[in-house]
């Protein structure tokens, strides 16, 4: 069993006396209650090559105070999600799973031991409700691996918002803390500071001076984002920068998917699609003999992530359409029939998805992605200036889409047109993603072009969703008829979906006329 909370806090370097200022009367702070002193004894774990620390993740086993296993995942500035599990001698399996996308097969070993004497005060409002916790820590840290080291000591302070607290309070308190001699810590966590100060190569240097050079504060080399300078960037720089962002998204979203964070499955699936699309669009930059097998594995992962999502989206669409039908026109157990139909078609399960994420095939894919970035299979065109290859690839995907749209508009309404429009939707998505790759160097023109492609994709996507919905409604009607139920409402919904698809087809020529104006293409070539 695990528990997750969102932690919003700021750390400060404190003076040796470790004193805390009285913040009574600041903003809505009506009083300060002294909670006494507690001793916190924590051992931090990581792989020998610091894979967790490289991504700003901390994993510890703590006794004293809020004892147990704590995993902290960075969310944003001053914000981390903390997942807690009861104290045990071994790492709980749930927490091990949450870091598996980083650790892969590497062992987690005791890395640093921290002993903190913490003086805690609660900042409360006029009703005595806690607003934040202010604490002063005297920390003793000792590195455990690769070899035991000498202890280092420092004093620091923290301000952590109470659950549901307003982050603006941290900004309000900051100048008052500064007046008391507290300064924002350069290290993002105690572990980061301990690693910097106990590093044999930097022993004796201040952690604050090591913020930029300390290894644990950086992402792994093969996934590290590099700033792109448009004037000097090559085609390879641009494409690899985009791929790095997608690999980072997949790895970062892994624990979110395991924790069932809303929209995380969809976002991870989109990252896999963006990578596959980039492989195809920029095949002149990357060797397809290397990227095609990886693309096939990304397609497999996307399929596994979408096992139940497509059904859920379709069910939500049919539910929404049913709610639009007046009650007097809902004949028979339509809603119940829809629920039974949807449940019977569940293709996956929570256990199946976790099995995929824990499986050798998925972990091998992550290794392959890191290897791709570490030693990219660049073709000669990758070394050329981006302007010679990137716009050409985007326009190539656009021309592909243009041909598909023209073919669809020339095809009579019916199944053949539906198929062509569906292929056009995929082409629009590919052109959109190709333009996204170009944004760091092309800027606003690429952004505007991607937005136009998104409009085409949305229209064609809604059309395809209507096609799929009609197939489902026909199937539902057949089942209802076989059970002796009225099929009137299913027929009504079918007709409405048919009308919606026809309306989208009528909108397409106007949208395409705007999308295909020469100025949009010219902007990419400028």
Would you mind describing this structure in some detail?
The protein is α+β, with helices and mostly antiparallel strands and 526 residues long. It has helices at 51-54, 93-98, 100-103, 168-179, 190-198, 235-258, 264-281, 288-305, 309-323, 334-344, 350-358, 360-374, 390-409, 415-442, 444-482, 488-515, 518-525, and strands at residues 3-13, 31-46, 58-63, 68-76, 79-85, 109-124, 130-143, 152-161, 183-184. It folds into three domains: 3-217, Hypothetical Protein Pfu-838710-001 (Beta Barrel); 220-307 and 348-384; 309-346 and 389-526, no CATH class. The chain starts with a strand and ends with a helix. The model is unreliable at 204-219 (pLDDT under 50).
Question: Brief description of this entry?
Answer:
This protein has helices at 51-54, 93-98, 100-103, 168-179, 190-198, 235-258, 264-281, 288-305, 309-323, 334-344, 350-358, 360-374, 390-409, 415-442, 444-482, 488-515, 518-525; strands spanning 3-13, 31-46, 58-63, 68-76, 79-85, 109-124, 130-143, 152-161, 183-184.
Structure keywords:
526 residues, alpha+beta, eight-stranded antiparallel barrel, 9 strands, globular
Layout: helices, strands, pairs:
Elements: E1 3-13, E2 31-46, H1 51-54, E3 58-63, E4 68-76, E5 79-85, H2 93-98, H3 100-103, E6 109-124, E7 130-143, E8 152-161, H4 168-179, E9 183-184, H5 190-198, H6 235-258, H7 264-281, H8 288-305, H9 309-323, H10 334-344, H11 350-358, H12 360-374, H13 390-409, H14 415-442, H15 444-482, H16 488-515, H17 518-525
Helix pairs in contact: 6-7, 6-12, 6-14, 7-8, 7-14, 8-12, 9-10, 13-14, 14-15, 15-16, 15-17
């Amino acid at each position: 069993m695990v528990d997750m909370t969102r932690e919003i806090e700021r750390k400060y370097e404190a003076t040796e006396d470790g004193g805390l200022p009285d913040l009574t009367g600041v903003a809505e702070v009506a009083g300060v209650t002294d909670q006494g002193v507690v001793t916190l004894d924590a051992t931090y774990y990581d792989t020998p090559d610091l894979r967790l620390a490289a991504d700003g993740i901390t994993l510890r086993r703590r006794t004293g105070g809020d004892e147990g296993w704590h995993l902290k995942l960075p969310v944003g500035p001053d914000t981390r999600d903390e997942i807690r599990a009861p104290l045990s001698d071994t790492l709980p399996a749930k927490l091990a799973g949450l870091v598996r996308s980083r650790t892969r097969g590497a062992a987690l070993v005791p890395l640093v031991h921290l002993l903190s004497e913490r003086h805690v005060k609660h900042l409360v409002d006029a009703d005595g409700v806690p607003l934040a916790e202010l604490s002063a820590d005297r920390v003793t840290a000792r590195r455990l691996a690769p070899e035991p080291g000498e202890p280092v000591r420092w004093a620091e302070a923290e301000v952590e918002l109470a659950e549901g607290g307003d982050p603006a309070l941290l900004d309000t308190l900051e100048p008052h803390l500064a007046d008391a001699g507290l300064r924002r810590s350069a290290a993002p966590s105690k572990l980061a500071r301990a690693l910097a100060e106990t590093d044999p190569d930097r022993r004796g240097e201040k952690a604050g001076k090591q913020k930029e050079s300390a290894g644990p504060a950086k992402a792994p080399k093969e996934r590290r984002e590099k700033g792109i300078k448009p004037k000097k960037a090559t085609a390879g720089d641009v494409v690899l920068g985009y791929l790095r962002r997608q690999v980072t998204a997949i790895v970062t979203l892994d624990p979110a998917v395991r924790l069932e964070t809303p929209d995380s499955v969809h976002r991870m699936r989109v990252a896999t699609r963006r990578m596959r699309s980039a492989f195809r669009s920029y095949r002149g930059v990357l060797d397809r003999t290397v990227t095609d097998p990886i693309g096939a594995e990304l397609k497999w992962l996307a399929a596994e992530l979408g096992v139940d999502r497509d059904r859920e989206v379709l069910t939500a669409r049919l539910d929404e359409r049913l709610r639009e039908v007046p009650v007097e026109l809902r004949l028979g157990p339509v809603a119940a029939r829809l629920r039974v139909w949807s449940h019977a078609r569940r293709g996956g399960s929570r256990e199946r998805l976790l099995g995929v994420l824990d499986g050798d095939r998925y972990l091998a894919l992550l290794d392959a992605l890191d290897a791709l970035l570490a030693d990219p299979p660049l073709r000669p065109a990758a070394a050329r200036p981006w302007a010679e290859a990137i716009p050409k690839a985007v326009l190539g995907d656009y021309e592909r889409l243009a041909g598909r749209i023209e073919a669809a508009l020339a095809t009579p309404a019916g199944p053949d047109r539906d198929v062509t429009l569906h292929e056009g939707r995929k082409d629009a998505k590919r052109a959109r993603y190709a333009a996204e790759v170009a944004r760091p160097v092309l800027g606003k023109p690429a952004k505007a072009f991607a937005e136009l492609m998104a409009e085409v994709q949305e229209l064609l996507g809604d059309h395809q969703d209507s096609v799929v919905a009609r197939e489902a409604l026909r199937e539902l009607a057949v089942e209802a008829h076989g059970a002796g139920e009225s099929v009137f409402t299913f027929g009504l919904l079918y007709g409405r979906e048919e009308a919606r698809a026809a309306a989208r087809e009528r909108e397409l020529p106007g949208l395409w006329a705007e999308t295909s104006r020469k100025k949009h293409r010219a902007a990419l070539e400028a």
